[in-house]
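Example 9 (inverse folding). The structure is encoded as follows.
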């Protein structure tokens, strides 16, 4: 009797595992299913013309060389919406509004070196909407803002240019013997303002 109970319990466990596995498999198939093929407007219009002429779905599929199920979906959509083409406004709506897009553009115009993650945090705190860094990048790309590597330029403003000219004029008229007392060494590079590595703007 104990052996029978153990065997029946094992069968129940296996049955539960198979049931759970089946549910997971259906979930994966549902979420990873490929997008249904979208036929051209001309082809759909041809299907509707045959339908209005009284042809059967099977005959229409044979004539236009598409599956009967596709013919059925096209006809059913025409019956419900009286429309052959795609319905305006279908698909996933934009996560950001026009105002949010303008705010995003304004932040980048002020500081071109600001990253998408920083803009994302600022938008979420100011406007109260949850968006991703990819959404920020897409909106900026749509507005014409692309990530580029900044050109390397020496930090020489108007004041520094004047000082350099003054320094050159000071030592320009020195005699040759003056430079014999100067200790010459190999040049060394020091960055006064951050790194001279790649900077995205």
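The amino acid assigned to each position is listed next.
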């Amino acid at each position: 009797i104990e052996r029978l109970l153990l065997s029946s319990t094992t069968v129940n466990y296996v049955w539960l595992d198979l049931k759970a596995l089946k549910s997971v498999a259906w979930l994966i198939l549902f979420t990873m299913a490929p997008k249904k093929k979208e036929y051209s407007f001309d082809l759909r219009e041809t299907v509707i013309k045959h339908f209005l002429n009284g042809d059967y779905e099977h005959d229409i599929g044979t004539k236009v060389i598409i599956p009967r199920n596709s013919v059925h979906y096209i006809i059913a959509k025409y019956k419900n919406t009286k429309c052959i083409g795609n319905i305006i406004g279908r698909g996933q709506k934009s996560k950001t509004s026009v105002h949010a897009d303008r705010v995003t553009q304004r932040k980048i115009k002020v500081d071109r070196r600001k990253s998408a993650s920083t803009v994302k945090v600022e938008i979420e705190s100011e406007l109260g909407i949850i968006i991703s860094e990819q959404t920020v990048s897409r909106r900026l790309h749509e507005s014409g803002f692309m990530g580029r590597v900044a050109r390397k330029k020496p930090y020489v403003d108007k004041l520094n240019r004047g000082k350099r000219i003054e320094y050159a004029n000071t030592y320009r008229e020195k005699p040759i013997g003056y430079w014999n007392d100067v200790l010459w060494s190999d040049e060394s590079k020091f960055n006064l303002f951050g790194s001279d590595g790649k900077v995205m703007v």
